[in-house]
Amino acid sequence: MSAPGYDAGPVAALRRIAFLLERAREDTYKVKAYRSAAATLLPMSEQELAGHVEAGTLTTLPGIGSSTASVIAEAWRGEVPARLRALEEHAGPLVPGGRALRAALRGDLHSHSDWSDGGSPIEEMAFTAIELGHEYLVLTDHSPRLKVARGLSAERLARQLEVVEAVNEHLAGSGFTLLKGIEVDILDDGSLDQTEEMLARLDVRVASVHSKLKMDPDQMTRRMVGAITGSTMNVLGHCTGRLVTGNRGVRPSSSFDARAVFEACAEHDVAVEINSRPERRDPPTALLELARDVGCLFSIDSDAHAPGQLDFLDHGCERAEAAGIDAERIVNTWPQERLLAWANQ
Predict the structure, then answer these.
(1) What are the beta bridge partners of residue 142?
(2) How many CB atoms lie within 10 A of CB 173?
(3) Domain shared by 286 and 180, yes or no
(4) How far is residue 162's CA from residue 172's CA, in Å, rounded to a whole number?
(5) What is the value of pTM for the model shown?
């Protein structure tokens, strides 16, 4: 996503600032201020906006404070806002490595919207993916058991699929497709937390463990292998569930027979996710190398909960490069047609 030029306008400047703040993992309230201001401007005519700028009354509008008003006024005058200029100075690659793999990625198989625990509407996630050069993005909001994340019931998921179709109709001819997906919970017995009927309607299915992460290792192994061998899942999400840093604290890895799990993945054509969130770095390096040696496919995913986090892919690409994983084994380097054929074989 490149920086807007001096003539890009206030909405583009506000969106770019929000993107860069999310990318840098700044506090949510800071990001929300810029996205709220952009939402306020969107329905306004140029004449109405000009009137507020010239009269100095921007801050009387809902969602616009002194900081966002300054950005709007500067952009309206054709200037690059000072806030944006300062952020752009530090907006290079998030990490130095993995650049060739990053260029090879065609899309992202794990992302969330405000339908579950993401912070932005579906269309904003799609527009940002386009600006990043993606050919596809899989929308993978949570399944119903994860109530804390507003997981989608079968009925809500069915409604979401209609929205995805409407977004794709609007984007027809853009070279980009928003794919229908889910991050479905792997339940205690290895079954998946969504109806078979709904899972069959999706393009890609990420399955993850979110509960009872301290389960006995033998039970956790049976749980994960059961899901891999007995369901329609395509990607094993953040396999250990660990947290290594961040405002959610730290959490140790789940214990399971990783070789048995990865051998099941290799046998059943399930990709192991390289989760690119900095607080996860999942799988740990030793397990990533084991999955490589076992012969697994991989998916480098952002697990984005906000548009700026879609750029977290840099982190996963650096780790995959360091582990010597060939791009051909990374399913989101594949063209969309091949990806969908694999996911629905």
Answers:
(1) 183
(2) 5
(3) yes
(4) 15
(5) 0.94
Residue 71 lies in a domain: yes
**Taking a C-beta distance cutoff of 8 angstroms, is the pair 176, 136 a contact?**
yes
The H or E element that residue 70 is part of is helix 66-76
Q: Are residues 142 and 252 in the same domain?
A: yes
Considering the domain architecture, whether residues 173 and 27 belong to the same structural domain is answered as no
Q: Looking at residues 246-269, what average pLDDT do you find?
A: 95
Residue range 54-110, pLDDT digits in tens:
999 999 999 999 999 999 999 999 999 999 999 999 888 999 999 999 999 999 999
- Residue pair 181/203 in contact (Cβ under 8 Å)? The answer is yes
What number of other Cβ atoms are within 10 A of residue 345's Cβ?
7
Per residue in 261-282, pLDDT tens?
A: 999 999 999 999 999 999 999 9
Q: CA–CA separation, 63 vs 294, rounded Å? A: 52
% of the chain exceeding 90 in pLDDT: 92
Supply the CATH number for residue 162's domain.
3.20.20.140
**For residues 185 and 224, is the Cβ–Cβ distance under 8 A?**
no
